[in-house]
Amino acid sequence: MKNRARLTLSKMWVAFAPRIFLVLEIIVSLHLPYTAQPVKSGLLHGVINGFLSSALIILSCLLLISPCRADEVTVAGFAFAGDLKSAEHRFPYTFKLFKDVAAAKGNNFSYLINERIKAAKNERFDLKSAENMVNLKKSDRALLSTLVLTDEVVSSENYGSYYKTFVNLRGTALIFDYKNQIVVSSYPVSVVLFDATPEKPDHIRIAGFVADLIRREDGRGLITQYVRRMETASIPENGTKTLQIQQGAVTPEALALMPEALRSNPATVQSMLADSFGAVLSAKLGLSMLPASIGHATGGVMSMRLENGDDYKLKVGEGDYLFSLKLNKL
Description:
Strand content: 25-35%
Number of helices: 9
Helix content: 25-40%
Number of strands: 12
């Protein structure tokens, strides 16, 4: 039987009038026992002692939870969740940036990711650049990682003498098995921008906001968050319990206080709730979260399109621990 957690969110602090963005502060205590007994060589002496000690060290490495050899992970770059045909509608500003960069033959998002990942340090991984993808078909085990954009939300409304603009980009730092097309690890990421201007921002200004949220190098940038997750990510061992958000619900009372762009699309608000919770939980505790079963990953399948044109449909299992979220009021 699955472990199900019901979480009712009754009061939230929201930084943007009329209070549209959910800020979740989660305090969780984990107790992860780990013991490893040192290997003793007993009465062995001299050369025999040295030889057997080395053998025992190698054997202990094979038995310990953490492997001696780091897993090779190829960083594929940037991807849009879902099919490409609807990407222009689902990610209008990001997709336009993608097309503009391609037309100008500039450095795309995947290039930026591969450049910044070079500075990432994670002893569990041997991170390879996208150029290594040509060798994956020859490998017995091939792991790929990509920053998958799962949602883009833009809202701009008039409040008397000024306009307030809200931009939210959400994605996941994904690691998957290339050969078997299965999600291995997933770490949600989310970035937000609030802006107030005397005049309604045009498409060029909003496109600048989106570009900045993706490319900026501090912790508020989407690519930066991806790199940081990859620095703490790991490959789950056999038997490791998995987490997943199964359901996100928003009451009519809470929905009525949101901007029109969100009131008219409850499914977007539900996805925002699930992704925001997952991003905070993952960032706070460094936990992998299976892609939520609402929004971009439904029916146990997550589809995506890489910038290089490759399409994937990845199998997503059901989590061992399932969260059901409900936002009652703001």
